[in-house]
From TrEMBL:
Residue spans crossing the bilayer: none
Protein's name in the database: D-aspartate oxidase
GO biological process: D-amino acid catabolic process
Residue intervals of the FAD dependent oxidoreductase domain: 11-298
GO MF term set: D-amino-acid oxidase activity; FAD binding
Stated family: Belongs to the DAMOX/DASOX family.
Xref: Pfam families: DAO (PF01266)
Region Disordered, residue ranges: 303-325
NAD in keyword set: no
GO cellular component: cytoplasm
Cofactor: FAD
This protein's UniProt keywords: FAD, Flavoprotein, Oxidoreductase
Protein backbone atom coordinates (compact mmCIF):
# COMPACT_ATOMS: atom_id res chain seq x y z
CA UNK A 1 0.00 0.00 0.00
CA UNK A 2 1.41 3.41 -0.87
CA UNK A 3 2.48 5.37 2.19
CA UNK A 4 0.62 8.51 1.03
CA UNK A 5 -2.80 6.84 0.66
CA UNK A 6 -4.43 9.27 3.08
CA UNK A 7 -3.07 12.34 1.37
CA UNK A 8 -5.35 14.22 -1.00
CA UNK A 9 -5.04 12.85 -4.52
CA UNK A 10 -3.55 15.13 -7.16
CA UNK A 11 -5.65 16.84 -9.84
CA UNK A 12 -4.11 17.34 -13.27
CA UNK A 13 -4.91 20.02 -15.82
CA UNK A 14 -3.56 18.90 -19.17
CA UNK A 15 -2.78 21.90 -21.40
CA UNK A 16 -1.61 25.45 -20.69
CA UNK A 17 -3.45 27.43 -23.35
CA UNK A 18 -6.21 29.89 -22.55
CA UNK A 19 -8.53 26.94 -21.84
CA UNK A 20 -6.22 25.02 -19.49
CA UNK A 21 -5.22 28.11 -17.51
CA UNK A 22 -8.75 29.47 -17.03
CA UNK A 23 -9.88 25.96 -16.04
CA UNK A 24 -7.06 25.76 -13.49
CA UNK A 25 -8.10 29.08 -11.97
CA UNK A 26 -11.74 28.10 -11.58
CA UNK A 27 -10.58 24.79 -10.05
CA UNK A 28 -8.43 26.61 -7.48
CA UNK A 29 -11.44 28.71 -6.49
CA UNK A 30 -13.60 25.67 -5.66
CA UNK A 31 -14.23 24.44 -2.10
CA UNK A 32 -12.80 21.10 -3.29
CA UNK A 33 -9.42 22.75 -3.63
CA UNK A 34 -9.73 25.35 -0.90
CA UNK A 35 -10.80 22.87 1.77
CA UNK A 36 -9.07 19.65 0.75
CA UNK A 37 -5.94 21.08 -0.83
CA UNK A 38 -5.57 18.52 -3.56
CA UNK A 39 -2.18 19.16 -5.17
CA UNK A 40 -2.86 20.64 -8.62
CA UNK A 41 -0.46 20.03 -11.50
CA UNK A 42 -0.51 21.57 -14.96
CA UNK A 43 1.13 19.39 -17.60
CA UNK A 44 1.74 20.82 -21.08
CA UNK A 45 3.96 20.63 -24.13
CA UNK A 46 3.78 24.39 -24.63
CA UNK A 47 3.89 27.17 -22.03
CA UNK A 48 3.03 30.88 -22.44
CA UNK A 49 6.54 32.29 -22.87
CA UNK A 50 7.65 29.72 -25.44
CA UNK A 51 8.61 30.77 -28.96
CA UNK A 52 5.42 30.98 -31.03
CA UNK A 53 4.24 27.66 -32.44
CA UNK A 54 1.22 27.18 -34.76
CA UNK A 55 0.06 24.26 -32.61
CA UNK A 56 -0.24 26.49 -29.56
CA UNK A 57 -3.25 28.43 -30.81
CA UNK A 58 -3.68 30.66 -27.77
CA UNK A 59 -0.45 32.55 -28.38
CA UNK A 60 -1.13 33.14 -32.09
CA UNK A 61 -4.75 34.29 -31.79
CA UNK A 62 -5.86 37.81 -32.84
CA UNK A 63 -7.51 38.04 -30.39
CA UNK A 64 -10.81 39.84 -30.03
CA UNK A 65 -14.16 39.15 -28.44
CA UNK A 66 -16.42 38.81 -31.44
CA UNK A 67 -18.89 36.04 -30.92
CA UNK A 68 -19.75 33.56 -33.68
CA UNK A 69 -22.64 32.13 -31.65
CA UNK A 70 -25.65 31.49 -33.84
CA UNK A 71 -28.88 32.98 -32.50
CA UNK A 72 -30.18 29.51 -31.66
CA UNK A 73 -26.98 28.26 -30.01
CA UNK A 74 -27.79 29.14 -26.41
CA UNK A 75 -24.84 27.18 -25.00
CA UNK A 76 -22.25 29.10 -27.04
CA UNK A 77 -24.04 32.39 -26.43
CA UNK A 78 -23.92 31.79 -22.67
CA UNK A 79 -20.18 30.99 -22.76
CA UNK A 80 -19.36 34.03 -24.89
CA UNK A 81 -21.56 36.35 -22.82
CA UNK A 82 -20.06 35.13 -19.55
CA UNK A 83 -16.50 35.53 -20.85
CA UNK A 84 -17.22 39.06 -22.03
CA UNK A 85 -18.50 39.95 -18.58
CA UNK A 86 -15.53 38.47 -16.74
CA UNK A 87 -13.02 40.17 -19.03
CA UNK A 88 -14.88 43.48 -19.19
CA UNK A 89 -14.94 43.60 -15.37
CA UNK A 90 -11.20 42.88 -15.30
CA UNK A 91 -10.55 45.67 -17.79
CA UNK A 92 -12.81 48.06 -15.82
CA UNK A 93 -10.98 47.27 -12.57
CA UNK A 94 -7.39 47.18 -13.77
CA UNK A 95 -7.26 48.71 -17.26
CA UNK A 96 -4.93 47.76 -20.08
CA UNK A 97 -2.22 46.29 -17.83
CA UNK A 98 -4.44 43.19 -18.00
CA UNK A 99 -3.65 42.79 -21.71
CA UNK A 100 -7.28 43.67 -22.43
CA UNK A 101 -8.26 46.74 -24.43
CA UNK A 102 -11.73 48.20 -24.80
CA UNK A 103 -12.44 49.14 -28.40
CA UNK A 104 -15.17 50.43 -30.66
CA UNK A 105 -15.89 47.60 -33.07
CA UNK A 106 -17.47 47.88 -36.52
CA UNK A 107 -18.83 44.77 -38.22
CA UNK A 108 -19.44 45.04 -41.96
CA UNK A 109 -21.52 42.43 -43.75
CA UNK A 110 -21.37 41.68 -47.45
CA UNK A 111 -23.93 39.43 -49.09
CA UNK A 112 -26.46 39.51 -46.28
CA UNK A 113 -28.30 41.99 -44.10
CA UNK A 114 -28.30 40.32 -40.71
CA UNK A 115 -26.04 40.46 -37.67
CA UNK A 116 -25.84 37.96 -34.82
CA UNK A 117 -28.25 38.96 -32.08
CA UNK A 118 -25.61 38.56 -29.38
CA UNK A 119 -23.95 41.76 -30.62
CA UNK A 120 -27.03 43.65 -29.43
CA UNK A 121 -26.04 42.78 -25.85
CA UNK A 122 -22.72 44.64 -26.13
CA UNK A 123 -22.46 48.19 -24.78
CA UNK A 124 -23.14 50.98 -27.28
CA UNK A 125 -24.70 48.70 -29.90
CA UNK A 126 -26.06 50.48 -32.94
CA UNK A 127 -27.06 49.57 -36.47
CA UNK A 128 -25.37 51.84 -39.00
CA UNK A 129 -27.52 53.97 -41.21
CA UNK A 130 -27.58 52.49 -44.75
CA UNK A 131 -26.55 55.88 -46.15
CA UNK A 132 -23.22 55.64 -44.25
CA UNK A 133 -22.26 52.22 -45.53
CA UNK A 134 -19.12 51.88 -47.64
CA UNK A 135 -19.54 50.70 -51.21
CA UNK A 136 -20.35 47.02 -51.51
CA UNK A 137 -21.39 46.67 -47.85
CA UNK A 138 -24.96 45.54 -47.25
CA UNK A 139 -25.29 45.96 -43.50
CA UNK A 140 -23.14 47.14 -40.59
CA UNK A 141 -23.29 47.36 -36.81
CA UNK A 142 -21.08 49.01 -34.19
CA UNK A 143 -20.61 48.20 -30.53
CA UNK A 144 -18.03 48.16 -27.75
CA UNK A 145 -15.88 45.08 -27.39
CA UNK A 146 -12.48 43.89 -26.14
CA UNK A 147 -9.21 42.71 -27.61
CA UNK A 148 -6.58 40.65 -25.85
CA UNK A 149 -2.78 40.58 -26.01
CA UNK A 150 -2.24 36.84 -25.51
CA UNK A 151 1.21 36.85 -23.89
CA UNK A 152 0.19 39.46 -21.31
CA UNK A 153 -3.13 37.85 -20.44
CA UNK A 154 -1.72 34.29 -20.27
CA UNK A 155 1.05 35.43 -17.94
CA UNK A 156 -1.53 37.22 -15.83
CA UNK A 157 -3.38 33.90 -15.51
CA UNK A 158 -0.15 32.18 -14.44
CA UNK A 159 0.33 34.81 -11.72
CA UNK A 160 -3.26 34.33 -10.58
CA UNK A 161 -2.69 30.57 -10.36
CA UNK A 162 0.39 31.22 -8.24
CA UNK A 163 -1.50 33.57 -5.92
CA UNK A 164 -4.58 31.37 -5.50
CA UNK A 165 -2.47 28.32 -4.64
CA UNK A 166 0.18 30.16 -2.61
CA UNK A 167 2.70 28.87 -5.12
CA UNK A 168 1.60 25.26 -4.69
CA UNK A 169 0.55 24.54 -8.30
CA UNK A 170 3.37 22.90 -10.20
CA UNK A 171 3.72 23.33 -13.95
CA UNK A 172 5.46 20.57 -15.86
CA UNK A 173 6.57 20.66 -19.45
CA UNK A 174 5.78 17.17 -20.66
CA UNK A 175 4.09 15.52 -23.62
CA UNK A 176 1.55 13.04 -22.32
CA UNK A 177 1.19 10.37 -25.01
CA UNK A 178 -2.04 8.94 -23.59
CA UNK A 179 -4.38 9.45 -20.66
CA UNK A 180 -3.52 6.03 -19.23
CA UNK A 181 0.14 7.05 -19.16
CA UNK A 182 -0.74 9.17 -16.12
CA UNK A 183 0.14 6.20 -13.84
CA UNK A 184 3.53 5.66 -15.46
CA UNK A 185 6.28 5.63 -12.80
CA UNK A 186 7.97 8.59 -14.50
CA UNK A 187 4.79 10.65 -14.08
CA UNK A 188 4.39 9.53 -10.47
CA UNK A 189 7.91 10.79 -9.85
CA UNK A 190 7.05 14.04 -11.61
CA UNK A 191 3.89 14.50 -9.53
CA UNK A 192 5.68 13.43 -6.37
CA UNK A 193 3.08 10.84 -5.39
CA UNK A 194 2.15 7.25 -6.11
CA UNK A 195 -1.55 8.16 -5.86
CA UNK A 196 -3.44 8.20 -9.12
CA UNK A 197 -5.05 11.58 -9.85
CA UNK A 198 -8.56 12.29 -8.61
CA UNK A 199 -9.28 13.99 -11.94
CA UNK A 200 -7.76 15.06 -15.23
CA UNK A 201 -9.04 18.09 -17.11
CA UNK A 202 -8.25 17.53 -20.77
CA UNK A 203 -7.65 21.02 -22.24
CA UNK A 204 -5.37 20.06 -25.11
CA UNK A 205 -6.82 21.95 -28.09
CA UNK A 206 -5.81 20.23 -31.30
CA UNK A 207 -3.73 17.79 -29.21
CA UNK A 208 -7.04 15.88 -28.82
CA UNK A 209 -6.46 14.38 -32.27
CA UNK A 210 -3.43 12.36 -31.13
CA UNK A 211 -3.74 12.02 -27.37
CA UNK A 212 -4.18 8.30 -26.63
CA UNK A 213 -7.50 7.51 -24.97
CA UNK A 214 -9.08 10.57 -26.63
CA UNK A 215 -8.07 10.41 -30.32
CA UNK A 216 -10.98 12.58 -31.30
CA UNK A 217 -11.30 12.33 -35.07
CA UNK A 218 -13.92 15.08 -35.16
CA UNK A 219 -11.18 17.59 -34.26
CA UNK A 220 -9.43 19.27 -37.17
CA UNK A 221 -7.23 22.32 -37.71
CA UNK A 222 -8.58 25.51 -39.20
CA UNK A 223 -5.41 27.25 -40.28
CA UNK A 224 -5.21 30.98 -39.75
CA UNK A 225 -2.55 33.31 -41.14
CA UNK A 226 -2.22 36.79 -39.66
CA UNK A 227 0.00 39.82 -40.18
CA UNK A 228 1.14 41.76 -37.14
CA UNK A 229 2.00 45.44 -37.69
CA UNK A 230 3.08 48.21 -35.35
CA UNK A 231 0.48 50.99 -35.62
CA UNK A 232 -0.33 52.38 -32.16
CA UNK A 233 -2.61 55.03 -33.66
CA UNK A 234 -5.18 52.40 -34.61
CA UNK A 235 -7.67 52.27 -31.75
CA UNK A 236 -10.78 50.77 -33.34
CA UNK A 237 -11.53 47.26 -34.50
CA UNK A 238 -13.13 46.46 -37.81
CA UNK A 239 -14.26 43.23 -39.45
CA UNK A 240 -15.73 42.50 -42.86
CA UNK A 241 -17.65 39.26 -43.17
CA UNK A 242 -18.38 38.16 -46.74
CA UNK A 243 -20.99 35.40 -46.84
CA UNK A 244 -22.56 33.54 -43.94
CA UNK A 245 -20.59 32.74 -40.79
CA UNK A 246 -22.09 29.27 -40.32
CA UNK A 247 -21.15 28.97 -36.67
CA UNK A 248 -17.75 30.57 -37.13
CA UNK A 249 -15.91 28.91 -40.00
CA UNK A 250 -17.92 30.16 -42.98
CA UNK A 251 -17.31 32.91 -45.53
CA UNK A 252 -14.32 35.22 -45.84
CA UNK A 253 -13.40 37.32 -42.86
CA UNK A 254 -11.07 40.32 -42.91
CA UNK A 255 -10.18 41.92 -39.59
CA UNK A 256 -8.19 44.65 -37.93
CA UNK A 257 -7.49 44.03 -34.25
CA UNK A 258 -5.68 46.75 -32.30
CA UNK A 259 -3.99 45.69 -29.08
CA UNK A 260 -3.08 47.66 -25.99
CA UNK A 261 0.59 47.05 -26.86
CA UNK A 262 0.33 49.21 -30.02
CA UNK A 263 0.50 46.17 -32.26
CA UNK A 264 -2.35 45.61 -34.69
CA UNK A 265 -3.28 42.18 -35.99
CA UNK A 266 -4.50 42.00 -39.58
CA UNK A 267 -6.24 38.92 -40.85
CA UNK A 268 -7.23 36.53 -41.73
CA UNK A 269 -7.76 33.16 -43.26
CA UNK A 270 -9.76 30.06 -42.36
CA UNK A 271 -8.25 27.06 -44.09
CA UNK A 272 -9.86 23.86 -43.01
CA UNK A 273 -7.63 20.79 -42.54
CA UNK A 274 -4.54 22.69 -43.65
CA UNK A 275 -1.45 21.89 -41.53
CA UNK A 276 0.99 24.17 -43.41
CA UNK A 277 3.08 25.81 -40.69
CA UNK A 278 4.83 28.40 -42.87
CA UNK A 279 3.18 31.68 -43.90
CA UNK A 280 2.32 31.92 -47.59
CA UNK A 281 3.47 35.15 -49.29
CA UNK A 282 0.44 35.30 -51.56
CA UNK A 283 -1.82 35.08 -48.49
CA UNK A 284 0.05 37.92 -46.81
CA UNK A 285 -0.44 40.07 -49.93
CA UNK A 286 -4.10 39.13 -50.01
CA UNK A 287 -4.60 40.09 -46.36
CA UNK A 288 -2.92 43.48 -46.87
CA UNK A 289 -5.08 44.17 -49.91
CA UNK A 290 -8.25 43.26 -48.06
CA UNK A 291 -7.55 45.31 -44.94
CA UNK A 292 -6.89 48.39 -47.04
CA UNK A 293 -10.21 47.84 -48.78
CA UNK A 294 -11.95 47.54 -45.44
CA UNK A 295 -10.13 50.42 -43.81
CA UNK A 296 -8.44 52.86 -46.21
CA UNK A 297 -7.51 55.10 -43.26
CA UNK A 298 -5.49 52.44 -41.51
CA UNK A 299 -2.19 54.15 -42.23
CA UNK A 300 -3.23 57.62 -41.25
CA UNK A 301 -1.60 58.35 -37.91
CA UNK A 302 -4.00 61.20 -37.27
CA UNK A 303 -7.07 59.08 -37.89
CA UNK A 304 -8.56 56.12 -36.18
CA UNK A 305 -10.00 53.31 -38.22
CA UNK A 306 -13.46 54.86 -38.35
CA UNK A 307 -15.27 54.67 -41.64
CA UNK A 308 -15.00 57.89 -43.56
CA UNK A 309 -16.09 59.19 -46.93
CA UNK A 310 -12.87 57.61 -48.34
CA UNK A 311 -14.56 54.26 -48.12
CA UNK A 312 -17.29 55.43 -50.43
CA UNK A 313 -14.79 56.37 -53.19
CA UNK A 314 -13.81 59.93 -54.07
CA UNK A 315 -13.43 61.80 -57.32
CA UNK A 316 -9.93 60.48 -58.18
CA UNK A 317 -8.80 59.21 -61.58
CA UNK A 318 -8.14 55.50 -61.88
CA UNK A 319 -4.38 56.19 -62.27
CA UNK A 320 -4.33 58.24 -59.07
CA UNK A 321 -6.20 55.50 -57.26
CA UNK A 322 -3.75 52.84 -58.50
CA UNK A 323 -0.68 54.89 -57.49
CA UNK A 324 -2.17 55.67 -54.09
CA UNK A 325 -3.01 51.98 -53.63
CA UNK A 326 0.59 50.91 -54.34
CA UNK A 327 1.96 53.54 -51.96
CA UNK A 328 -0.42 52.50 -49.19
CA UNK A 329 0.49 48.85 -49.64
CA UNK A 330 4.21 49.48 -49.46
CA UNK A 331 3.77 51.71 -46.38
CA UNK A 332 1.72 48.96 -44.79
CA UNK A 333 4.45 46.42 -45.61
CA UNK A 334 7.01 48.62 -43.88
CA UNK A 335 5.02 48.36 -40.63
CA UNK A 336 5.04 44.54 -40.55
CA UNK A 337 6.47 43.07 -37.37
CA UNK A 338 5.62 39.43 -37.99
CA UNK A 339 3.56 37.06 -40.11
CA UNK A 340 2.17 34.15 -38.13
CA UNK A 341 0.29 30.91 -38.65
CA UNK A 342 -1.84 29.10 -36.11
CA UNK A 343 -4.17 26.11 -36.06
CA UNK A 344 -7.57 26.73 -34.51
CA UNK A 345 -8.69 23.56 -32.72
CA UNK A 346 -12.00 23.13 -34.56
CA UNK A 347 -14.40 20.28 -33.87
CA UNK A 348 -17.42 18.94 -35.71
CA UNK A 349 -20.31 19.38 -33.31
CA UNK A 350 -18.60 22.23 -31.45
CA UNK A 351 -16.73 22.45 -28.18
CA UNK A 352 -16.51 19.33 -26.05
CA UNK A 353 -17.23 20.17 -22.43
CA UNK A 354 -18.31 16.96 -20.76
CA UNK A 355 -17.38 14.24 -18.32
CA UNK A 356 -15.79 11.16 -19.89
CA UNK A 357 -15.49 7.62 -18.58
CA UNK A 358 -13.39 7.36 -15.43
CA UNK A 359 -9.95 5.87 -15.93
CA UNK A 360 -9.73 2.68 -13.93
CA UNK A 361 -6.30 1.49 -12.85
CA UNK A 362 -6.24 -2.04 -11.48
CA UNK A 363 -3.23 -1.46 -9.26
CA UNK A 364 -4.82 1.59 -7.59
CA UNK A 365 -6.43 1.25 -4.16
CA UNK A 366 -9.14 3.80 -4.71
CA UNK A 367 -11.74 4.93 -7.21
CA UNK A 368 -10.81 5.73 -10.77
CA UNK A 369 -9.63 9.01 -12.18
CA UNK A 370 -12.40 11.30 -13.37
CA UNK A 371 -11.92 12.74 -16.84
CA UNK A 372 -13.38 16.11 -17.82
CA UNK A 373 -12.99 17.31 -21.41
CA UNK A 374 -12.71 20.96 -22.33
CA UNK A 375 -11.39 21.31 -25.88
CA UNK A 376 -12.39 21.98 -29.48
CA UNK A 377 -13.00 25.74 -29.23
CA UNK A 378 -12.16 26.45 -32.88
CA UNK A 379 -11.85 30.18 -33.52
CA UNK A 380 -13.61 31.14 -30.30
CA UNK A 381 -11.42 29.93 -27.42
CA UNK A 382 -10.49 33.37 -26.16
CA UNK A 383 -14.03 34.72 -26.23
CA UNK A 384 -15.57 31.70 -24.53
CA UNK A 385 -12.81 30.56 -22.13
CA UNK A 386 -14.31 31.62 -18.79
CA UNK A 387 -17.72 30.22 -19.69
CA UNK A 388 -16.37 26.82 -20.69
CA UNK A 389 -13.97 26.71 -17.71
CA UNK A 390 -16.88 27.24 -15.31
CA UNK A 391 -18.94 24.51 -16.98
CA UNK A 392 -15.99 22.10 -16.92
CA UNK A 393 -15.49 22.64 -13.19
CA UNK A 394 -19.20 22.34 -12.44
CA UNK A 395 -19.38 18.83 -13.98
CA UNK A 396 -16.45 17.40 -12.03
C1 LIG B 1 -5.03 33.06 -36.29
C2 LIG B 1 -5.96 32.81 -35.14
C3 LIG B 1 -6.80 33.82 -34.71
C4 LIG B 1 -7.67 33.59 -33.64
N1 LIG B 1 -8.46 34.61 -33.21
C5 LIG B 1 -9.29 34.41 -32.17
C6 LIG B 1 -10.10 35.47 -31.68
O1 LIG B 1 -10.03 36.59 -32.16
N2 LIG B 1 -10.95 35.21 -30.65
C7 LIG B 1 -11.03 33.97 -30.08
O2 LIG B 1 -11.83 33.79 -29.17
N3 LIG B 1 -10.26 32.96 -30.52
C8 LIG B 1 -9.41 33.14 -31.55
N4 LIG B 1 -8.65 32.11 -32.01
C9 LIG B 1 -8.89 30.77 -31.47
C10 LIG B 1 -8.18 30.53 -30.15
O3 LIG B 1 -6.83 30.86 -30.30
C11 LIG B 1 -8.34 29.06 -29.75
O4 LIG B 1 -9.70 28.71 -29.72
C12 LIG B 1 -7.79 28.84 -28.35
O5 LIG B 1 -6.47 29.34 -28.28
C13 LIG B 1 -7.78 27.37 -27.97
O6 LIG B 1 -7.14 27.28 -26.72
P1 LIG B 1 -6.70 25.89 -26.12
O7 LIG B 1 -6.13 26.19 -24.79
O8 LIG B 1 -7.81 24.91 -26.23
O9 LIG B 1 -5.57 25.34 -27.13
P2 LIG B 1 -4.03 25.73 -27.26
O10 LIG B 1 -3.80 27.16 -27.04
O11 LIG B 1 -3.57 25.15 -28.55
O12 LIG B 1 -3.33 24.96 -26.07
C14 LIG B 1 -3.29 23.56 -25.99
C15 LIG B 1 -2.40 23.18 -24.82
O13 LIG B 1 -2.43 21.75 -24.69
C16 LIG B 1 -1.12 21.24 -24.67
N5 LIG B 1 -1.13 19.87 -25.16
C17 LIG B 1 -1.77 19.38 -26.23
N6 LIG B 1 -1.60 18.04 -26.30
C18 LIG B 1 -0.83 17.70 -25.25
C19 LIG B 1 -0.29 16.47 -24.75
N7 LIG B 1 -0.53 15.30 -25.36
N8 LIG B 1 0.51 16.49 -23.64
C20 LIG B 1 0.76 17.65 -23.00
N9 LIG B 1 0.26 18.85 -23.43
C21 LIG B 1 -0.52 18.87 -24.52
C22 LIG B 1 -0.33 22.22 -25.53
O14 LIG B 1 1.06 22.13 -25.29
C23 LIG B 1 -0.94 23.55 -25.03
O15 LIG B 1 -0.33 23.92 -23.81
C24 LIG B 1 -7.73 32.31 -33.03
C25 LIG B 1 -6.85 31.32 -33.44
C26 LIG B 1 -5.97 31.56 -34.48
C27 LIG B 1 -5.02 30.46 -34.88
Amino acid sequence: MPSDLNSPRPIVVLGAGIIGLTTAIRLLETPLYQEKHHPVHIIADHLPDDPLDPRYASTIAGAHHLSFADDGDERQRRWDRRTFKVMYDEWAREGESTGLMRIKQTELFVGHRQHLHIYEEHPDFQVMDPSQLPEGVDHAVKFTSLTMTPAIYLNRLLRRIHELSYGQVTIHRYHLPSLSHITDPSIQTMLGTSLTPLAIFVCVGSGAIDLGGVEDKSVYPTRGQIVKIRAPWVKEGMTRQVGQLNGGEGGERTYIIPRSSGEVVLGGTREVDDWETQPRDETTRNILRRVLEVCPNLLSSSADSTLTSDNKGSEQSSTEVAVKGREEKSRLESLIVDVLVGFRPSRQGGVRVERGHDLIFEEADHEGTKVVYNYGHGGAGWQSCWGTAEDAISIL
